[in-house]
Design brief:
The longest helix has about 35 residues. A hairpin with a 3-residue loop joins strand 1 and strand 2. This protein has about 180 residues and is of the alpha+beta class. Helix 1 packs antiparallel against helix 2, helix 2 packs parallel to helix 3 and helix 3 packs parallel to helix 4. The strands form 2 sheets. Strands 1-2-3 form a 3-stranded antiparallel sheet, with helices on one face. The chain contains 4 helices and 6 strands, in the order αβββαβββαα. The radius of gyration is 19 Å and the shape is elongated.
């Protein structure tokens, strides 16, 4: 009986060590991702990703279409990579293609994550809502409190503030 208990303790210790290394690696990868895609809040311009503006309301903004498309492309790639690094499945599949990214709503519906004359605003807004739902999915999986209707970049920044700064553990595995 003592041998089984000792073996169980050794396996638990090995698992704790593995989970610690995995979490450290995830934090390192997210820190590097945060350096590639810095999110800042400018008092005059609002939230920026890599110094590009991403307005809340795309239909009444004066931000050029190319800037919005590039910012959405960065945002899409950032959400995609964050989910991969944290091994969190997203609700909606992302297609990262720089300033021509898209999101899959269902088996036959793909919505744009870019602006162009040929893109209907309703489709773009719905795509942005689904991208926001993916961010919310990551937040919920990590158990991070957030304001659902806040700016998408504010919610992504919240993920990084908590995970990279170590404010919360990535996993509560119940192993002590």
């Amino acid at each position: 009986m003592e041998l089984i208990e000792l073996e169980s303790q050794n396996q638990a210790a090995t698992l704790r060590q593995y989970l610690f290394r995995k979490e450290a690696q995830q934090m390192k990868l997210l820190r590097e991702l945060q350096m590639v895609y810095p999110i800042t809040l400018d008092p005059k311009k609002g939230y920026l990703i890599r110094d590009l503006r991403l307005p809340v309301d795309i239909s009444t903004t004066t931000v050029p279409e190319e800037e919005i498309s590039a910012a959405l492309g960065f945002c899409c790639h950032l959400v995609f990579m964050t989910s991969k690094y944290l091994t969190i499945s997203l609700r909606y599949r992302l297609f990262c293609n720089s300033s021509r990214s898209a999101i899959q709503m269902d088996a036959n519906t793909f919505l744009p994550l870019f602006t162009a004359r040929s893109v209907e605003r309703e489709h773009l807004e719905r795509g942005m809502d689904l991208l926001g739902a993916n961010v919310d999915c990551i937040l919920m999986n990590l158990g991070i409190d957030y304001t659902p209707k806040s700016h998408i970049l504010a919610r992504i920044k919240r993920i990084f503030d908590h995970v990279v700064e170590g404010e919360i553990p990535l996993h509560d595995n119940g192993i002590h």
